[in-house]
Amino acid sequence: MSKFGVQFEATPAIVDILKQFGASPKLISMIPVPPLPPPPPTPPAPKVAGSLTIVCEPTDCAVVVADKYEGSTTGNRKTIGGLRPGETTVQIFADGYEQHTRRIVLEEGKPSEEKFLLKRSHLIREADARASLLKTLASLGGVDGLVELSDVEGAGTMQWANSSGMLEQWTVTFNKRPGREIAATFKTAGGQCTASISAQVSRQECRGELRNGGDKIAEQGTTLFLSYQLQDVINALLQRPLITSEPGGNRLESIDSKDSYFLTIGSDGLPTDLVYRIGSAEQAIHVQYSNYLRLNKGRYPGRTSVGRLNNAPAWVFTLNSVRSRVVRGQ
Hints:
Elements: E1 2-3, E2 6-7, H1 12-20, H2 25-29, E3 52-57, E4 62-65, E5 68-72, E6 77-80, E7 86-93, E8 100-106, E9 112-117, H3 122-139, H4 142-149, E10 152-161, E11 167-177, E12 181-188, E13 191-198, E14 201-208, H5 214-227, H6 230-238, E15 243-244, E16 251-255, E17 260-265, E18 271-277, E19 285-295, E20 298-308, E21 315-324
Parallel strand pairs: 3-9
Antiparallel strand pairs: 1-2, 3-6, 4-5, 4-7, 7-8, 10-11, 10-21, 11-12, 12-13, 13-14, 15-16, 16-17, 17-18, 18-19, 19-20, 20-21
Helix pairs in contact: 3-4
């Protein structure tokens, strides 16, 4: 309706005003109805990232993405869809393992895979180390076995590399007493050396062709053989904090400000390798134990080799026989 150049539309407010002034329905119907507003624009479909596959080892784990729990992996894997592209956070949880959090970037329409290698918690590694050491103790004959190993005598050979790099071999008999006490006799076709260590006192006596220089070899060989007696290593570790190495649980670690022990345990519970370190890693000593001999209730390594880590052994002690001198009451 237009009058005096003014355009009217039959909005609800105008219709009410006309009715108040007595306008006839016919007049009101002549006023054009305003057009309906246009529909709002359809929002664009949200962008979706490609599927995200979580691989969790060595165990199944719980998965949280962008602070939303997505469930647990099955067979170490879980695939998640419907995620928004862009940067997000993935959190991984598993009993007995350290929590793992990672920031990742998801791309629109592009599948991705994230692998998580979980580390066992420190408390679990401590408990596993204690269990492994107790298994080793049992394999060596238990407490009774360690007592028998503390006082032994045996015979065999000592092989060592001379200053020219050539291997030499002496026969040896020894008596190992409890504590830091040992006496060893080395023989060749032309000479003999006797070396003894009692507490911190060391003595050597050589005759024949071993008189010149043989005392130093006898002293060094006896000291090394005494220093890495397996029963003494086990006794030391029983009194120190221990954890298992990662990955796997067959290697025990004991590290403090003075020195470090790394002891590898075989599947039978018997030690196979010891790395002992004071100071730098380049000075680490590598000891290998093998060919175990039965000693009543105990087990004693029939072959002990000693050398620098990542080098061939410089000293090899091979025993033909070993006997405990511990006398047990009936």
